[in-house]
Amino acid sequence: QVQLVESGGGLVQPGGSLRVSCAASGSIDSIYFMGWYRQAPGKQRDLVAGITSSGTINYADSVKGRFTISRDNAKNTVYLQMNSLKPEDTAVYYCNAGIKPVGRPAYDYWGQGTQVTVSS
C-alpha cells in the first residue's frame, strides 16, 4: 500500500516562511513526478510546483521567486519551502506523485492535504 504523508503546514504571518514535506512510503518501484497543488475555499486545485525524477522543475507564476521545491530521492520525499508568504497563499496544500508500486502499474497518488494559513 503506497501512501503520501504530508507535514509542516500551519499558521504564519504575512512575509513569513514555512516548509511542508511529503514522504512516500510503501512498496515502491519508481517515483516519477512529485509536486504540490493547492486549493483555496471555493476555488479549483492548482499546481504550485513540480519536480520530475530527473530534476526538471516548474512553478506557478504566482510563486516564482518565493517558493522552492526540492526532492530527496533516497528518502522518497519532496519539500516545498515557502518564503515571503502572502494571505493569498492560504490554502490546503496537497502532495501529488506519480508512483509505480512494485509489481503494479504506475498510478497518480495524493496526500491528505495540509492547511497553510497566512494571516496577521
Number of strands: 11
Q: pLDDT average, as an integer? A: 97
Q: How many angstroms separate the termini? A: 40 Å
Estimate percent helicity: under 10%
Q: Cα-atom Rg, whole angstroms? A: 14 Å
* Sheet with the most strands, sense and barrel status: 7 strands, mixed
By secondary-structure content and strand pairing, the structural class works out as: mainly beta
What is the string of helix and strand elements? EEEEEEEEEEE
Global geometry? elongated
Number of helices: 0
Low-confidence stretches: none
| Beta-strand content bin | over 45%
Describe the structure.
The chain has strands at 3-7, 10-12, 18-25, 28-39, 46-51, 57-59, 67-72, 77-82, 91-101, 107-110, 114-118. With 120 residues, it is an all-beta fold. Strand 4 and strand 5 (46-51) form a beta hairpin.
What is the gist of this entry?
The protein is mainly beta. It has no helices and eleven strands.
SSE inventory with pairings:
Elements: E1 3-7, E2 10-12, E3 18-25, E4 28-39, E5 46-51, E6 57-59, E7 67-72, E8 77-82, E9 91-101, E10 107-110, E11 114-118
Parallel strand pairs: 2-11
Antiparallel strand pairs: 1-3, 3-8, 4-5, 4-9, 5-6, 7-8, 9-10, 9-11
Looking at this protein, list some descriptive labels:
0% helix, seven-stranded mixed β-sheet, 120 residues, single chain, mainly beta, four-stranded antiparallel β-sheet
